[in-house]
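Table S2 (continued). Query chain:
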Amino acid sequence: TRICLLTNDEGIDLEGEIVPIGLENIDVEWTADDDGIVEIAAETKVNSGAICAHIVPKSAGVTTLRATTKNGQSAACEITVRKPIPVESVTISPEEIHLLIGKREWLTAETLPANADQAELTWETSNAQIVTVTQQGSIVGKSAGSAVITASTKNGVQAKCTVVIEEMTEEKLEAYLAQQPAYVTSAYVGVQSTQW
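Corresponding output:
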């Protein structure tokens, strides 16, 4: 088994199984060939054959983690720890948007470089009474005014979008409807005739 971790990961639970299942009071010792790379941060738990240890990365490198019973039975896992590739920039499209109360739009965001680690974004609004945002970038206008939507990465890189929410007027309603796709429906009526 091989596992790759980042140096700033919070850690991972490694699980194994002792066979035959049902053995109790089995002592298992967890060790790392190089404890400068990973730390075994939690005690072993044995429950109906299951064993578990919480592993926390400490520095970049490769080491082998071993779980060994008192009678010498063991299993090993190779762990590689590397430094994360940081996000360098975030962009939101569009950077400014006007939206009517009650309407929904989607913002899109791009992080660079494309192979950056931990590129997940957290979306926030500066005023949820004016505009709300989901963690997928969907915004909904709530009341007239302006607010700022921010998308942030774990390493603190941000991008912002200014959102202006406007009240619905007859003129804006007409303009909104004019932008919507037109649909044409047709109905066919069949007439059945009977010849005597």
